[in-house]
Amino acid sequence: MTDKDFQPLDSGVVPRFAGMPTFMRLPVATPEEVDIALVGVPFDGGTTNRPGTRHGPREVRNQSSIVRRVHHATGVSPFDLVRVGDCGDAPINPLNLNETLESVAGFYAGVRRAGAAPLTVGGDHLITLPILRGLVADGLVTDGPVGLIHFDAHSDTYDSFFGNRYNHGTPFRRAVEEGLLDPRRMVQIGLRGAISDAANYDFAKAAGIRMIFIEEFVERGAKDVMEEARAIVGSQPTYLTFDIDVLDPCFAPGTGTPEIGGLTTREAQAMIRMARGLNLIGVDLVEVSPPFDPSGGTAITAATLMFELLCILAESVAARRTPG
Ligand code: MN
Ligand code: MN
To answer: Which residues in the chain show pLDDT less than 50?
Structure first.
């Protein structure tokens, strides 16, 4: 235990533009000190086209100074439910992908052993693979594979690019192959955009992953889609991953693989809130690329969605602590 006060700095005492830019102006902490560890993974070595997400965690930290304490719609105050702190960045090597996969997995295994649930900001989407390895592979959270709610314009279940099987287009195929995710408890929401090969969705289809393309989302609406998503993952341990490119590029241009015709920020907020009460073991928000975000708007959007994600993760963590 610790005598730290795990509350955001009081904006009536220290103005939001002052002080050190930790996530949400929370104290720097070790995973042992907190229930929810806010972590950055500043790595874009899995990017196949437009890079820059290595700068995501720092910029989201900066813009997250705008985050306040109480959710306006749900009334949830995550900082009153659980201890939350900024646990810094996972160790990465920008020149060595394989070493980074190992060091990030090792970091997240440490987070789990400390009893904390991670809320991560990337980084490109490859980082979700070592996060899942760290959380799931050591059997601390669950004996078997976990479920996944996956917001993304892309399925990220391709086999390889440039002869390399580890990049931001492949993490969920690898995670299924490695037994980290149960494909029958996986749902991908917001898929769209032309693909380079008609066979690109074959793996996901054959594995039984539920793919909800944007056309189906528009037809059915957020509530209906999320009711199905909740039924797919059920009450068993589940991870949630949010690729910022699921949003329309008019809301989030600062990303490497923008696809027009995407979700509004309001739809995304509503769907995250509809994931309340699930058994979440961790969440992440990836693919924010500040060099493509001259207005800073994508990073502000990411910081705000991070608060939405924190609220539902805090409720999950609190519910596990007091069963029933
Ligand atoms: Mn992705
Ligand atoms: Mn994507």
So the answer is: 1
pLDDT at 144 (0 to 100) = 83
> What was the pLDDT predicted at 203?
98
Ligand nearest 241 Cα, by number?
1
Residue 8 lies in a domain: no
**Structural domain of 161:** 23-320
| Three-state DSSP class for residue 14 | coil
Q: Cβ contacts of residue 108 below 8 Å, gap of 6+?
A: 90, 118, 130, 131, 133, 134, 135
Total-model pTM: 0.97
Note whether residue 152 is domain-resident: yes
How many distinct structural domains can be found in the chain?
A: 1
Residue closest to 26 by CA, chosen among 89, 83, 76, 111? 83
What burial class does residue 123 get, using C-beta atoms within 10 Å of its C-beta: 0-12 exposed, 13-18 middle, 19+ buried? buried
Closest CA to 67 of 56, 58, 78, 57: 78
Residue 15 lies in a domain: no
Give the closest residue to 110 by CA, choosing from 93, 129, 126, 134. 134
Residue 293 lies in a domain: yes
Q: Check which CATH number belongs to the domain holding 43 and give it.
A: 3.40.800.10
Q: Are 119 and 40 in contact (CB under 8 A)?
A: no
Give pLDDT, residue 169.
97
With beta carbons less than 8 A apart as the criterion, state whether 119 and 144 touch: no
Query: Any residues with CB less than 8 A from the CB of 177 and at least 6 apart, and which?
Result: none
Q: Which ligand is nearest to the CA of 258?
A: 2
Ion ligand 1 contact residues with beta carbon within 5 A: 125, 152, 154, 156, 243
- What is the reported pLDDT for 143? 67
Percent of residues, the chain, with pLDDT higher than 90: 94
CA of 241 to the centre of ligand 1 (A): 9
